Amino acid sequence: MPNIYFNSQKIPFKVGQSILDALIEFDFKPVYSCKKGVCQTCMLKSDSSQITQSQMEVKDTLKVQGYFLPCQCYPDSDISVISPCSEDITYDMQVSDKKLLTQDIVQLKLVFTSDNRVFIRAGQFINLKVQNDILRSYSVANTPEKDGYIELHIQKVPDGKMSAWCFEHANIGSALSMIGPFGKCIYLSDFKNDDLVLIGTGTGLAPLIGIINQALSNKHKGKITLFHGSRHFNGLYLHQTLKKLADTHENFYYKPCLSGEIPQTLADENINNGRVNKVAMMQLNKQKGDYKNIRFYLCGHPEMVKNMQKMAYLSGAILSKINADPFEYTAY
Amino acid sequence: MSNSLFDSIGGKDAVNAAVDLFYRKVLMDESISHYFESVDMEAQRDKQKSFLTFAFGGPNNYTGQSLREAHAPLVSKGLNENHFTAVAGHLQSTLDELGVPEDLSSQVMGIAAGTINDVLNR
């Protein structure tokens, strides 16, 4: 009799039985609802090739991470599966580089201290832990797999413990640990021909620039439009880099937006005045593009993300093509 | 399950075709949209999908109790019969838009109408 290894626990099963039914039979109390492959509540993760048939209804960005529906999975030999929330393994890391991007944003580069194989995609986030008790989420700003390090952009938060550590105490060689990665705000090579619209406020730019660089190095064919919003000009912290990127890639468009007043000195910078979601909706409507063909990436201020997601959906965008990552700031 | 309402209406495909039409109508209706706004729109859409699966006579785990618990916080924020009727109206127009024959759509509307006491916590 073959076995399912569920979070490493061994469960014998009968060939012809679904993984979900085996988990129910052996009283593992899995979460499930319809058992018909519709509701997706029973979703688990595996790297086995036996899950392919049970991934038909799973969203593409989850599929590549090994998510599948155990109610639709009938393996015929041993298989290891895990519940998505069991990834509580911490990895030791250290700071390999530190640079102030602005007065309020610091860039850290992190490397693993031991030979770990953690596959982190551009656009995902990790939970960072320092001094054993401070834990915060940060999006990666690069493609760690390619670069060999993780890049983070950390916004200074008044009274924020983690940002204080990053600004004041972090030095090259400082130790910290990470949990993750998490998040499905990612780019896949299947998206090559899609038009991408990326909208971010503040350091919500970090995951977006990771995705953009990955798409460009993948020789993305569709149009890539980035709207980056801030109140003040120094919040557009990659302005020069992004301008240069737009000059050298004909399918990449950079649209900086300031919600505050635009000073005369910036008159030549082609900055849009207004909140980034409003500017984006206005320009998208003007182009009369078909919303259902656009793939959205929204990161940053939760109100902006929520409003933009709703407006895009009501304008005809497909919800599974709207990747939303609201940044909830912890003010302590 | 042959000739069940769920199969006649088109099963999972019918639910998939209906869910965005229905959810967009609900979100665009300002008299009710605030009850449906959620940061996690995908989760909210999945709930609409389970509801439609239920109303289309499909496999589901809807119980009177779960409907009651899910809507109780909304009832305390003023959810009433007018809101229920508005949502039902959007369901009807979704079915009409999809060209669901009347004998089937009236069965769907019947199932939906049967939830009123649980939804309004009466």
From TrEMBL, chain A:
UniProt cofactor(s): [2Fe-2S] cluster
Domain of life per record: Bacteria
Matching PANTHER family: NADH OXIDOREDUCTASE HCR, PROTEIN RFBI
Stored Pfam families: FAD_binding_6, Fer2, NAD_binding_1
One GO molecular-function entry: iron-sulfur cluster binding
Protein name: Ferredoxin-NADP reductase
Domain FAD-binding FR-type: 88-188
Matching SUPFAM superfamilies: 2Fe-2S ferredoxin-like, Ferredoxin reductase-like, C-terminal NADP-linked domain, Riboflavin synthase domain-like
2Fe-2S ferredoxin-type domain ranges (all copies): 2-87
Keywords: Ubiquinone
Species this chain originates from: Pseudoalteromonas denitrificans DSM 6059
From TrEMBL, chain B:
Cofactor mode of binding and number, as noted: Binds 1 heme group per subunit.
Family annotation (PROSITE patterns): GLOBIN_FAM_2 (PS01213)
GO molecular function: heme binding; metal ion binding; oxygen binding; oxygen carrier activity
UniProt keywords, alphabetically: Heme, Iron, Metal-binding, Oxygen transport, Transport
Family matches, as Pfam families: Bac_globin
Stored CDD domains: TrHb1_N
Keyword Heme: yes
Binding annotation for heme: H71
Signal peptide: none
Required cofactor names: heme
Top-rank taxon: Bacteria
InterPro entries in the record: Globin-like_sf, Globin/Proto, Globin_bac-like_CS, Hemoglobin_trunc, Hemoglobin_trunc_I
Xref: Gene3D superfamilies: Globins
Family under the similarity heading: Belongs to the truncated hemoglobin family. Group I subfamily.
Protein name: Group 1 truncated hemoglobin
Species in which this protein is naturally found: Pseudoalteromonas denitrificans DSM 6059
